[in-house]
Amino acid sequence: MASVPAEPPEDAVGSTAPPEGEAAWAYEVAHPDADQDLAPVVGKNLRRLRIQRGLSLERLSKASGVSRAMLGQVELGQSAPTINVLWKIARALDLPFSALISNSAGAGTRLMRAPQAKRLTSHDGRFASRALFPFDEPRRVEFYELSLKAHSEERADAHPPGTMENLVVTRGTLEMEIGADHHLLTTGDAILFEADKPHVYRNVGAEDITMYLVMSYAEEVG
Length: 222
Known about the structure:
Structural class: alpha+beta
Number of helices: 6
Helix content: 10-25%
Number of strands: 10
Strand order of the largest sheet: 1-2-3-10-5-8
Radius of gyration: 17 Å
Largest sheet: 6 strands, antiparallel
Order of helices and strands: HHHHHHEEEEEEEEEE
Oligomer: single chain
């Protein structure tokens, strides 16, 4: 999945500007209900990709805006980062989001059972993402199931140039903020947009939103 000034307090929306100091580290950690099985996978991938690029934790911290302490904990598999933190790291490494949560497996038919699904959440548990595709083959397209609780929002940083998002709402009412533009989507509505600018998913209704997202990259990834 964003730094936008003058955000409202956390009790008004699902995502807010992170605090400073020790509180910032706590903000970067995922909600306790997050899938902890992903922590070692993300840690292994982060360390490998960081070393491949010759980056120290300090340099990656400055490039991503994620604290050095948090990056260290993620690499050790001791902390489950939020979706927003993973997006910031992926952006700093110039990689797709999926590169950090990839767990290689065999080719062929892949059945991904719902109970075994790996889900990533925001720090407050209001936003969740489930990957609906395997990561071990080169691709330009990724498919996600997203959920956003009532009266919450999730802010996303700009993705690499050429990235497109195609989103369909299957339940609830979504306000999509893309740069300076605002679009209201109700159940069954879909939107296609260039995702190389900051964007916001905002639930303006009283029920949780379920939506499905197809991300298309300009270049093959994986």
